[in-house]
Each structure stands twice: as C-alpha cells, then as structure tokens.
Amino acid sequence: MTDEGENSSVVLQGSEASLPEASNYSWYVLVVLVIVYILNFIDRQILSILAVDIKADLGLTDADMGFLGGAAFAVFYALFGIPLGRLADNWSRVKLLSIGLALWSIMTALSGFARNQAELTLARMGVGVGEATASPTAYSLISDYFPKRQRATALAIYSSGLYIGGGVSLLIGSNIKEAWNLTYPGGGPLGLVGWQAAFLAVGIPGVLVGLWVASLREPKRGAMDGLETPAHPAPFRAFISDLSMIVPPFTLLGAWQRGHAALAINVATGSAIAAFAYWMIQLTGNFPQWSAVGFGYYAVFSWAATLRAKDPATFRLIWGTPAFICTTIGYGLVALAAYALAFWSAPYAETVLGLPKQELAGILGGSGALSGFLGVIVGGAVADRLRKKNPSGRILVVILGVLGPIVPIAIGFTTDNAALFYIMNFLAGTLGATALGAAAATTQDLVLPRMRGTATAAFFLGTTLVGLSFGPYMVGQISDLAGTMVDGKLVGNLRVGILSLIAVAPVGLALLIAAYRSVPKAEQTIVARARDAGEPV
Hints:
This protein is mostly helical. 58% of the residues are buried. It is built from 24 helices and four strands. The chain is globular. Mean pLDDT is 88; it is low at 1-16.
C-alpha cells in the first residue's frame, strides 16, 4: 500500500498516436505469458475430469465437489490477489510471477497426496495463493509492452491460455489417470491412485517453467501510455501492510487506527456477513462453502475501506467508479456460467449421458480449447474495432458473452444426443469467451498505470468471488437439492443444476447496460478524478 502521494507521480508525454509500438520482444513475452496461463488453468481445471473419481474415493457430494472446484480455490486466489496485485504495481513483476508459478505448481503436486476433503481443500487453497500472482503481473506487463490500441487484442491472446489450459487439462488428466490405474489397479507407489498421480504429473513441470519466466526483461512502467511511473521505495513494506488488511484480527486493528467510526463500521459489516454465512450454512448444510465465502467478502470490505483511507485516488478510480464496478460484476456473472460449465460439463457427460471418460475428455477438451481460443481472440479483436468507433463499444462484446450462451445451454443440457450436446457446449463456450478481453481491457483503461495491478486484482475479485466461488458450487448445490436417494446415497440432478445458470443472465445484462452508459465519461475524467482525490498528476 502506498501512502498518499507516494509512488504516484506521472508525466504526460504525448498523444496516443505518438506512443511506442509493440516490439518483437513484446510478442515473445506474450507467448511466454500465454504458456504460463496454460499451466495455470491445467493446474486449476484438472479437478473437473477427475471429479467423478475423487467424489467416489473420498465420499463427497456434488456440492462438496463444487466447493473444491470453486470457493476452496477462488477465495484465496481473490484475497491474495489484492496484496499481490499491489506488489505487482510496486515490485518486479517478472520475479513475482516466477515465484508464484513455482508455488502453485508445488501445491498442485501436493494435491496428489490428499487422502480426504480437508487435505485436498488445503492444497487447493495453496494453489489459489500461488495463482494469485499470475494475472496481476501478466496484465500489468502486457499493458507496458503493448499500446492501448492493441491492448484488448494482446489481453485476449493472453486469455486464450485459459481455454487452452482448461481443455488440455481434461486430456492430460484422463490419460494419466487411466494409464496409472491400468498399470497399478490396486494403487501404485505410496498407495496413490490415478487421480492423485495426475495431480503430481501436471504440477512438477511448472517449477521448471518458472525459471524461464525469470529470464524475461522488466519493462518500464507506464511508458506505453506516456505516463512514466517511478519505482516504489519500499515495495515489501507496502505488501505487508496490504496483507494485514485482509487477515483478521489485523483488519480490526487497522480499522481502530482509522478511528472509532471505522472500527464500528468494520465490526458491524463483519457481523452482518457472519450472520448471513451462518444462515446459509444452516440452510444448505455446507460449512466450508459459506464460511470461506463469508471470510472472503469480509476481507474484501476491509481491504476496500483501508484503500479508501490510504490511497484515495486508487479507491476512487476503482471502487468509486460505477463503470468499473458494473463491468467487473457484469463480467463476473459471465464467468459464473463459464466456470460452472468448464467444471461440470465432463462429469455431466459421464454420469448423465453415460459417455466414456476417454471420449468425452478428448472431445470436450479439444472443443473447449478451440472454442475458448476462437471466442477470446475474435472477441478481443472485435472489441478493439468497436472501441475505435464507440468508447463503450467493448461493452457490447461483454453483453454478447452474457446473452450468447443461453440458447446453447438450454439445448445442450436437455438433449440426450451426444453429438448435439458436444456442438452446443462448443457454441456456449465460444460465445461466453468473447467477453473476457473486452472486459479486462475496459477495466485497465479506467485507471492510471501505477494502479493496474490493483485494478486487475479488483477485476478478478468479480471473476472469482462472484464467478468461480458460486458457479461450480451453485450447480452442485442445486443438483443435490434436485437429486434423489439411491441405495442410501444421494444422486444429484446435474441437468437441473446446469440449467439454473440461465437465471443469472438478466442480472448481468442490467449491469452491463449501466456500464455501457457510464464508461465514456469515466474514461475521459480519469486524470481529473485522480487529481481531485489527491493524485499529483
């Protein structure tokens, strides 16, 4: 966390047309970052193809698996993205990314030694902490390697790693699990079974890739926008300060230091969130999900309150900008459906349609990678073209991401025809993927260069605490509620669970219409609003 005015001096250096061009090295860096993002999503999404086996071995429900595929990872990913996003603004992004990559790879490998839900939950939390370094550093690096007019395209190319990694994870996880179980039908070395071996196999290579990342050059911060930003004098002091903002009881101490009113508001908000979480635990019987979500939302509130006191300019351009909030939460609802489909499509095809794991892994994995890649690349390019004619043009692409998947989901998850299911799943993935580059670029354009890591962390709060925390879990919980008891065991109704995703579209549409109307003015007044909040621009 910077004190007011610290690390915030910027120098305007000319119009957008006179700014530097992206170099060949810029594109090389982008390729490396895409590879890192592929590994990121292999480690994150491999749980999907292994879900049926993990559920059987550990005796879990669909809601339990939704928690492991969502909030167990997402809350810690989102929360540690806050201080790590600020560290990306203040320290070497290359070093931070290489360390984070090594950490999440090690924690993925440790997932392979899990013997129960608690151990797997802890490992997933560790993966979340490590992966929290990825997008804040990558988004900031890309924004300093590519000019604004190419930024959505570059961010979309980076984001393609999400879909490639998610798709490849199905193929890798399925093949490793099957090969291991055929070789060791009674369990292999250390008693490990196929799904555990798959975690080990995908986690270990990431440590080596971390060394490659460490060789990249750190670009000059803000040069692409003509807003050169000096280095922070004490980045780790700021990081520790930020970390203390999200970890109770330090959150209460920080509020107390800001005054009795701030402490009272913090306690009241924390109590209200705790009461809501308790009520949901009683209603659903799922303690891990709602305790994690409650902790996450309280920590975010504490962070935002501290940010407002210590860095009012950053607070104003992020939390005080309706265009930023509506874009972030609107895209978060796109992500809710996308994460839910990414996690549950394979278990659905295996259990409801009775498709063999090897077949569905190949088709869903390949089509998921292709649909996501096409969607995010085309969406980013179209978003950049629309922005040339309309400052809010990118939001139209995000709206497509909300509305486009509705019909494919409705058809694909009601048919018993495997081919039609695969086709509709492909279309839903393609249309949903168009939104990411447009939404990400919009939020990056609404802040000053020194705030980009923090803005990325805030953006990913929407995709994780809204999208990832609730998407997989919502489907699993509704599946359990709509399920039946068979031989004393609960058998969920995944069809009903997945179709429930359609209900979030109207909310997302309303938020994005508000963003469309407010983005132009917000972008035009960035410097003025930052100056009014104390930024020496």
